[in-house]
Amino acid sequence: MPTFQTVRGMRDLLPEEAEKLNYVIAKARETAELYGYKEVITPVVEPYELLSAKAGEEIRQRMFTFKDLGDRTVALRPEFTSSIARLATTALKNEPKPLRTLSIGSVYRYDEPQRGRYREFWQSDFEVIGSNKPEADAEIVLLTNSLMKAAGLRNYVFKIGHIGVIRGILSQENVDEKVQNAVLQRMDKKEYDEAFNLITSEKCRAILQGLIELKSSKAFETAEKMKAYVKDYDEAEAAADNLLEIMNLVTESGCPIEIVEPGFGRGLEYYTGMIFEVYIPELDIALGGGGRYDRLIEVFGGEPTPATGVAHGLDRIAIAMQMQNITQKIKQGKRVVVIPAKEEQSADALKIAQTLREAGIPTEFEVMGRKMAKALEDADRRQVDYAVIVGEKELKEDAVVLRNLAKHEQTVVAISNLAEKIRR
Questions:
Q1: Total structural domains in the chain?
Q2: Mean predicted confidence (pLDDT) in 246-270
């Protein structure tokens, strides 16, 4: 018989890894509750046309695409925003604004597998739909800051930019939108020569070259330099102004912005405004990122609707916690195993186990038919807290033996008092 392995880029998460991921997921849900976001669940499989419309060339090339049995071209979602934009034009169309949504689940991209980059990975996606105000952009940065804090991460750094600055220059220089998208894709990868070779105007190339060379150790200083540099480009100057306004709101609320990158692009075509990412020094890939996308819902047939959002790499946050030696503080109840002394007591033992579960106590049952000594040895090895031993003699008195496995102490306890005794 062949030994099967996972498909390349996919992973099995073993209990400890699953526990870490679920811990981060729980923190994302707690953050959503604090900020007033409601969770929605969308399909893993969507129409290819929906997912590819504004995804960007690189993501389009990396989507898992196939024909279904109805000969329709569909794909596994590479991110959540397109699905949420679809919802905003259909089921949520008449909901009061702003819409604040949370989505949590697996997404799929055919990337080259490496640490923190898989072909199936987990995201928490937060979207604010209906507001064009800088406060909405500030909110998605601030909730990201809250999630990083909740995960216990240290020394994380926010990088911020504004796609409107580059698009403002390119538009005023009459660069076609398709070319703009290609330029931004390459600038995002810091392939500046390849990006500028797509532009015929020498002046435009020189302006962009000068823009990416604007650097300062202070974020606000860089943003001010950007604004002064693009003063001859009205849309770009307004975008730089908008960026400064968002930065002020964020920093006034206690979240520092360390890096402003004038040539920052991100890989998605739908961005129209502020964009950002968050990093830790130990890992060279972003733990999360997002930005403003004011025209996507219109592309999908909705009314013109401003929107902004962020996606967090939950696997990456779990890895970041591991790299910074952060242990998740999961509240766990006492773990119990119920062991019948003999097979004749199995029915009574099962009933007792079920009573404990109904009382909210995590309870396992000895299903392997092991002798008492072996069953206790196994429970001790797995760090179970208590063993409930169900014997014939004790049952006659409506009692059981409760053994504290850590202290190697045991006592006879009435079945009616068992749950309370374990809790204490």
A1: 2
A2: 89
